[in-house]
Specification:
Nucleotidyltransferase, domain 5, 22% strand, 3 domains, 6-stranded mixed β-sheet, alpha+beta
Length: 434
């Protein structure tokens, strides 16, 4: 008896911060591909290494944790993260400098990363994968349907370019609902809160043992809503609150008779705190402009630290420290940030109260998105049975508590932050393509 041919499809959760791939593993079961050192998820990161290359040689490319390690080790090149954030923006078709006189198109970065995921999945599946279900946020772009369609089309084009000839999309929070549904034995009304690196998405879904047998679940989806606010926004606020003030953010210029000191220009700090804009600060003209601004600072030590960030290309390292501080506060209440790169012995602290104050406006917008989802469905908050959390940013307890407070009768359940969406996408792919 011949063994069945391996399935030719997979499901990909292409996330802002981390990505995962699901393969069929038998009837009603999926398995996540071991992407890197046995890990089921991999940072959505690419490093282009250009040091020591001859003019005709292509840059070396590293992915995931290897990309982050190459950057931290100080190799000459360019780290790219949060590539999903540029979909639907004017940056998508533009090229960006990666060093040594070389540049790469942002969409080619996305395509290269998808190709790497596909290669890893094909190695584990032992077959060519030509069909895929891709996850997508409820909104790639807030309040702009045309750009939202453009973002999905850009992702589709990138997937087709690497060899996926048949593809479909599923909303990420719907996928999380499908994953949750596998373990229940009664019908429930579930609000899925999928809060990741780039977006906070909500879906109100009817789930149950009979419903999960259906391929077409459109009538079970009562409403979707989302906002383009999530983990990377939290990282930006943490950096602006606890790190960049040491470099002059919200600092003032010298006192002059009869004049109120002016706040130093802030644009450079917002660029340094935004992943895909950091590299724009390193251009020669921008560096020269910042160097001439020393007289703008009453505290010239702040300007000296800023120039160290810019001249030593420390922007990505600092935002990674902000992300680590956010996670540490979520787990332990307070943390100390080592800023020796800026100045020997320099330290900053962040506690939960400071983090909540910095993130409160964004958390408020996320809670409003949850409430607007219920409003769109015509459902009262008290009628929701389950509030199901997934996505990396649901590890921040003050945020999940704030959302749960808006749904007092719902049971708050935390799914697998890293895997729920990918597993649900895999189940959907199995029903749709298997």
């Amino acid at each position: 008896m011949t063994s069945p041919r391996p399935a030719s499809y997979c499901a990909i959760d292409f996330g802002t911060s981390n990505s995962a791939i699901a393969l069929p593993a038998g009837p009603g079961r999926v398995a996540l591909v071991a992407l890197e050192n046995g890990q089921r998820t991999m940072p959505t990161a690419v490093f282009y290494q250009v040091e020591g290359l001859a003019p005709h040689e292509e840059p070396l490319r590293f992915y995931g944790r290897a990309a982050l390690a190459a950057y931290v080790e100080g190799h000459d090149g360019r780290l790219m993260r949060s590539m999903k954030s540029i979909l639907g923006s004017t940056l998508a078709e533009q090229s960006t400098d990666i060093g040594a006189g070389r540049s790469v198109r942002y969409l080619d970065v996305v395509g290269g990363y998808l190709r790497h995921l596909k290669t890893l999945a094909e190695r584990e599946a032992d077959t060519t994968l030509s069909r895929v279900v891709l996850g997508r946020p409820v909104f790639f772009v807030d309040d702009d349907p045309a750009r939202d369609r453009q973002a999905q089309q850009a992702l589709e084009n990138a997937a087709r370019a690497v060899g996926f000839s048949e593809l479909s999309f599923q909303y990420e929070p719907i996928a999380a609902a499908l994953d949750y549904e596998q373990g229940i034995d009664r019908e429930e009304l579930v609000l899925v809160a999928d809060i990741g690196g780039g977006t906070s998405d909500f879906s109100l879904v009817r789930v149950g043992p009979e419903r999960r047998l259906r391929i077409d679940r459109r009538e079970d989806i009562l409403a979707n809503h989302g906002v383009h606010v999530a983990g990377t926004d939290f990282d930006r606020h943490v950096e602006l609150t606890s790190i960049l003030p040491w470099c002059g953010y919200r600092g003032f210029g010298p006192s002059r008779p009869g004049q109120t000191p002016r706040e130093v220009p802030s644009r450079v700090y917002f660029d340094l705190a935004t992943w895909h804009l950091i590299n724009t600060v390193y251009g020669p003209q921008r560096v020269a402009e910042l160097r001439r601004m020393r007289s703008f600072y009453a505290d010239t030590d702040q300007h000296a630290r800023l120039m160290r960030v810019v001249e030593d290309h420390l922007g990505h390292a600092l935002i990674a420290q902000a992300e680590a501080a956010k996670i540490a506060v979520a787990e332990g209440g307070s943390t100390q940030i080592d800023l020796d790169r800026l100045e020997d012995g320099l330290r900053s602290t962040l506690d939960e109260a400071e983090a909540v104050q910095a993130l409160d406006p964004d958390m408020g917008r996320i809670v409003e998105a949850a409430q607007e989802t219920l409003l769109a469905a015509g459902v009262d908050a008290g009628d929701v049975d389950v509030l199901y959390f997934t996505g990396g940013s649901t590890g921040f307890l003050p945020l999940t508590q704030k959302i749960a407070a808006a749904l007092p009768n719902a049971r708050a359940i935390h799914g697998d932050r890293d895997a729920s969406v990918a597993q649900g996408l895999g189940l959907h792919a199995q029903r749709l393509l298997g």
